[in-house]
């Protein structure tokens, strides 16, 4: 494979992914969590941001966990006060999982400075550049997920 300027960006993206993973692992360790717990909280927050309810089954699928693993994960997060199980908005028979506000506050305290620095960096780009960055990152995400 060619070692052109594109590969420099690929290697930089890999380095960013590693650093973000280490940052998440530090958060997990600081709060007595597994890295999968952090991934679960992110998936739950993303679903809430999209206005979608997250069931245990859907969360397990998103994380690549079987039913027993998902139950253990949710029990751990619930015991830690990070999530709660509630009834669905439209279908009260459905059990959905939501992130507790205390977990949101922990996340904001730890990840807030990184998020603020990222937003500050993005403000240095014009809308066309931000659209290019958004398109690139979306494409990489989709390729990694096997959908692009």
Describe what this molecule looks like in 3D.
The chain has 148 residues and is mainly alpha-helical. The chain has six helices and three strands; from the N terminus they run H-H-E-H-H-E-E-H-H. A three-stranded antiparallel sheet has the order 1-3-2. The longest helix has 26 residues, at 5-30. The relative contact order is 0.09. The mean pLDDT is 94.
Task: Set down the secondary structure blueprint.
Layout: H1 5-30, H2 35-49, E1 54-55, H3 56-63, H4 67-79, E2 83-87, E3 95-99, H5 101-122, H6 127-145
Antiparallel strand pairs: 1-3, 2-3
Helix pairs in contact: 3-4
Beta strands, count: 3
The average pLDDT value, as a whole number, equals 94
Secondary structure: helix percent: 55-70%
Number of helices: 6
Shape: globular
Order of helices and strands: HHEHHEEHH
* Span of the ends, CA to CA: 21 Å
Task: Decide which structural class fits the backbone.
Answer: mainly alpha
Radius of gyration (Å) = 18 Å
Question: What is the topology, as strand order, of the major beta sheet?
Answer: 1-3-2
Largest sheet: 3 strands, antiparallel
